[in-house]
Description:
Layout: H1 9-23, H2 28-34, E1 39-48, E2 54-65, E3 71-77, H3 83-99, E4 106-112, H4 120-134, E5 143-147, H5 153-167, H6 191-207, E6 214-218, H7 224-233, E7 237-243, E8 246-249, H8 256-266, E9 276-278, H9 280-284, E10 290-293, E11 312-314, H10 323-332, E12 335-337, H11 339-342, H12 345-359, H13 365-390, H14 394-413
Parallel strand pairs: 3-4, 3-5, 6-7, 6-10, 10-11, 11-12
Antiparallel strand pairs: 1-2, 2-4, 7-8, 8-9
Helix pairs in contact: 1-3, 1-14, 3-14, 4-5, 6-7, 6-12, 6-13, 12-13, 13-14
Residues 72-74, 146, 148, 176, 318, 343, 346-347, 350 line the site of glutamic acid.
Amino acid sequence: MQLNKGENLWETVLQQLDETAKRINLESWIHKKLRKSKRELTVSIPVKMDNGSVEVFTGYRVQHNITRGPAKGGIRYSPEVTLDEIKALAMLMTWKCAVVNIPYGGAKGGVACNPFKMSAEELERLTRRYTSEILPVIGPEKDIPAPDISTDSQTMAWIMDTYSIDKGYSVPGVVTGKPIAIGGSEGRSEATGRGVVYTLLNTLKHLNLIEGKKVIVQGYGKVGSVAANLLFKEGYRIIGVGEIDGAVYNADGLDIGRLNKHRKKSGSIVKFKEADSITNKELLQLKCDILIPAALENQITKDNASRIKAKIVVEAANGPTTPKADKILKEKGVFVVPDILANAGGVIVSYFEWVQGLQSYFWSEREVNLKLRDIITKAFYKVLEISLKKKTSMREAAYSLAVNKVAEATRIRGLYP
Ligand code: GLU
């Protein structure tokens, strides 16, 4: 899918940075520096396929900024991956780590491939070769990858193993989101979804909304499914859920437990008997209180924003709302919790995993969850305070906070990093 001009995420994040620079009176030398990635690496990944042929994939690793600490960010596998997308997502990671005040810069990686059409063996060969190609720029003190779309703890294990083979000893700190058996953290796989729920609870408290708990979740992967399951357990009515191949809707609320069973059996949420089948487009426009986009970027656009009926949008995905849509939502009075705050739970627990690994001292899941709640709640109220004081949206406030933090570190350190 080619994105239209104006829907290019790189243009979006640049526009957001430019507007923030103006708002906070950012020095032009810092602004100019932040408009560029520190390093963009493009690699070819030749892979022997199961049928004996060779495919050459293209992969990227982009480090946007390392002024506040090592670069940090996930790796995604998707046919839509482009350098511009990865550059944008790397910049968003810089802001995300700054908003929640964890000592990292921002990075992102990706390989343009279709993981759904590849066997586990092909994916392993692809991952190991991609790792060899980006090996000079990653490392526990340099740049620490993690899972993102269509990558998981097994992918991280292959990266960690390939990196360790090169070094001649085990280096668990080179990635986060690892399996527990090789140094992963309790609570990491659920962390992004859990963080989304914590920010939503803070939002409801702030808006004094006790009634009205009808929720729509677009995306039922690592983030959306966790958020839906946690909210269902809390008594929220999940009236609609969408996935790549379609969406399901039940005005009385879906039984998420039974939906999970159906998905496990059939491989998809569609054709769930206790719900109506609808399109993802219809899903976003349903009447609900809370909308959680947890899929890809550019889902809420100028074409559908005016038809969004939710009072609250919690951005579990990265970049789901285009700037034009954002303006429309603002005019409609929708409370939008921006991606760099709402979905920061994943990288927060990645940070915990890295810290636990460095100390070789591991925490209980309860401890991880409590610390996650603490950090993301602190960040939420800091952003809220700025938004109320400066009369800006939560996104503008989060950007002001993040860019100011990176700018402060840049002033202290200077041009070099
Ligand atoms: N891919 C996740 C994100 O976009 C997690 C990144 C990480 O843990 O480094 O925030």
